[in-house]
Amino acid sequence: MPARILLVEGSDDQHVIWALLGSRKVSQVFDVQPVGGIDKLLESLPVRLKASGLERLAVVLDADTNLDSRWQSISDILRNSGNGQLPKAPEKNGTLLTLATGIQFGIWLMPDNELPGMLENFVARLVPKSDTMMAHVDRFLSGIPEDARKFPAVQLPKASIHAWLAVQEAPGKPMGQAITATYLTADHDSVDLFIQWIDRALVK
Amino acid sequence: MARMFHVALALEFARFGRRVEQRTLFPTELESEPSAGRALLIDEVENGIHYTVHAEFWKFVFRLASLHGIQVFATSHSWDCVQGFQIAATEASECEGMLIRIEKKDTSTNAVTFTEKELQIVSRDEIEVR
User: Fold this and answer.
1) What pLDDT sits at residue A67?
2) pLDDT tens, position by position, A158-188
3) CB B4 within 8 Å of CB B68
4) CB-based contact, B121 to chain A, within 8 Å
5) Which of A83, A89, A88 is nearest to A49 (CA)?
6) How far is residue A26's CA from residue A200's CA, in Å, rounded to a whole number?
7) What is the mean pLDDT of chain B?
8) Mean predicted lDDT score pLDDT of chain A
9) Closest Cα partner for A109 from A86, A132, A131?
10) CB half-sphere exposure, A39, CA atoms < 13 A
11) Is there a contact between B121 and A50 if contact means CB atoms under 8 Å apart?
């Protein structure tokens, strides 16, 4: 059992994080494990905290539409499983704490521990400043009448980044590969903060 | 009662694994004392059990333990055994199953417990509990 684990919701998160770690040359002394969705991740958290040989566990979760309620649900799970109390709100630079069991535990809420949103909001910030395609994507998406749109409005960031990826030099690369191919830039303040949190939570 | 439990379990071992004749089956004190309300200890329970039949084996142990009122403590390092135990424990409504990991931490020895519900997650997500 790896002693240091980063839990993420799905394989998109895993590949984006792998690409960011690669671009920043972070020494990967931990596993990045996709769990198969937010519900499974939250359900299994108390059990994963009892895994044998575990020293450090960090989780990356989407804040989704309500950051406070997402935070509260993690807080309840930790308290009810005897793992102690979370701070009232997430720390801007990513939360870190030592649990009653001595395990170091980290939480990052996508996109930035402050705003509602998801992985795709974080990735959208990595579109280079020189980009000209996002304006076309915005026009395309806003041109779709609301009653014809097949997905709920809350999923617009997802549609937007994937539409943008669809019109790059090699159309349709997944987000992680687009970072490696430098369509998306890892040279961004958001990435700095995220990588610093990873470093504190799992590396140093 | 204990004698019956012992013989039935021995027969079941014979069904589940080919190496059964090589193992020392059970503590002999069971044969001489009435067993209801007593505990049975089985060390390295996976020995002699084929990896494909752990769940069936454990279902049998749960049935027998319930029938004779015996609490069973078994030790194992086997993942197949953990998974088989989990399946049987979930199914056996008449008995409660629990996994306990004994671990050394600094100078103390701790017991980390997993309920049946937690074992379902352990098994589903392949979380290392050994």
Assistant:
1) 97
2) 999 999 999 999 999 999 999 999 999 999 9
3) yes
4) yes
5) A83
6) 11
7) 81
8) 96
9) A86
10) 0
11) no
d(CA A9, CA A59): 9
- Token pair of B89, please? 């424990």
End-to-end Cα distance, chain B: 33
Which residues touch A65 (CB under 8 Å, ≥6 apart)?
A116, A154
CB proximity list for A154: less than 8 A, separation 6 or greater: A64, A65
Return the residue of B nearest to A46 by Cα: B118
Q: What is the C-alpha to C-alpha distance for residues A128 and A130, in angstroms, rounded to an integer?
A: 5
Neighbours of A1 (CB within 10 A): 12
Q: What is the pTM of this model?
A: 0.88
Query: Among A98, A96, A125, A99, which residue's Cα sits nearest to residue A110?
Result: A125
Q: Chain A: which residues have CB within 8 Å of chain B?
A: 1, 35, 40, 43-44, 46-48, 50-53
Asked if B100 is an interface residue toward chain A (Cβ–Cβ < 8 A), one would say no
State the residue for tokens 């009810």. A80
Beta pairing class for A31-34 and A4-8: parallel
The answer to whether A109 touches A62, Cβ cutoff 8 Å, is yes
Chain B residue whose CA is closest to A45 = B121
Give the closest residue to A169 by CA, choosing from A115, A128, A119: A128
Show the tokens assigned to A113.
């521990």
Of the candidates B112, B121, B129, the beta carbon closest to that of A43 is on B121
Q: Is B103 on the interface with A (CB under 8 A)?
A: yes
Task: Report CB contact under 8 Å: A47, B118.
Answer: yes
